[in-house]
Amino acid sequence: MFDSEKLSVIILIHNNVDLSRRCLQALADAAAGLDHEVILLDNNSTEDTGCLRDFAHVFRGFKWIRNAQNSSFSIGNNRCAREASGRRLLFLNNDVFLQRESLEHLIAPLREDRGTGVAGGKLLFPGEESVQHAGIGQMLWDHPSNYGVGANPSDARIREKCERFALSGAMLCVDRGVFEKVGGFDERYVWGTEDIDLCLKIRAAGFRVIYCPDAVAVHCESATLKVHKSNDAEGNCRLYRRLWDPLLIPAEQGYVRSLKEQGIRRVAVFGMGTAARGLARILDENDIRIAAFTSSGTRKAGDSFLGRPVIPPEQLEAEKYDRLMVATQYFFEIEPKIRRYDPHQEPIYPLLN
């Protein structure tokens, strides 16, 4: 049995003692008024992390687990979840520093609505001047991306409490019963996409995935992940598509139909990375032509990308195209600068959900 009001906070650590200390100090302030426990899993650190046990007296409950090997995010968190005694599980990266009132806002949807299965908050870049993560969206370019990257934290699109396609595992609060019902994190994923997969399983089980903008933290993104040499983004993506294509393909087809219904047949694409490659493939398959690619780093014409011309943004006016599509997760950051290059002054960010 688990405690109906207790919050179990699960944190994986691997070296980076100073980051973990800052994480635990912020957590202590945020959790002060809550019934809680902290489960700290040392993922086979090579540094001496024993000093972190000094935090045991700070929290109402504290458990230290030492892993014999550096296991993946999903394996480590599943192990800790089995050790937890709380009704709600908060998976927290050790490079996330919670603001004081955030836990109350994060728990509220789960406490107030039994139809909510998981909640996540707003993550800011260090310095707190821009958003790093305000949920996750599935894009027309094959794979999901963080929503709101580079946005001003006060942007109205970021401040709305709402359902999201998925949420970041860096700060993810899950109902214990729901987590167990869907089988926890899928351990076939290797340091990536397991959080999105979990959210989709929760939604498929009939529960809501809620973004809480008032649950705020600073995230030193990937400060911990850099030590994991087993990261396999391509393998994770293949597994994700294989498992969720029955959901994703109809969404992609529906989005393309909506573009065509708007009379969009020829576009310019801002971006020349992995996202642009995925977007180009789907547009080509559906007879929407790409007139040219562009980006803020484009200085002169004459280059090509995927067989199309690369043109500086200010020279796009010479091209004939219906709309400008953005193939980068940094849409919110660049939107004000590129708005004028779209014929409708509203560049298309191809978010499926």
Which topology of the largest domain does CATH recognise?
Spore Coat Polysaccharide Biosynthesis Protein SpsA, Chain A
Number of strands: 17
Strand content: 25-35%
Please identify the top-level CATH class of the largest domain: Alpha Beta
CATH-wise, what's the superfamily of the largest domain?
Answer: Spore Coat Polysaccharide Biosynthesis Protein SpsA, Chain A
Quote the average pLDDT: 94
| Number of continuous helical runs | 9
Give an overview in words.
The chain has nine helices and 17 strands. With 353 residues, it is α/β, with parallel strands linked by helices. It has two domains: 3-227, Alpha-Beta Complex (Spore Coat Polysaccharide Biosynthesis Protein SpsA, Chain A), CATH 3.90.550; 262-353, Rossmann fold (3-Layer(aba) Sandwich). Strands 1, 2, 3, 4, 5, 6, 7, 10, 11 and 12 form a ten-stranded mixed beta sheet that branches. A three-stranded parallel beta sheet has the order 14-13-17, with helices on one face. It has a two-stranded antiparallel sheet with strand order 8-9. Helix 1 links the parallel strand 1 (3-13) and strand 2. The longest helix is centred in the last third of the chain and has 29 residues, at 233-261. Residues 225-230 have low confidence and may be disordered.
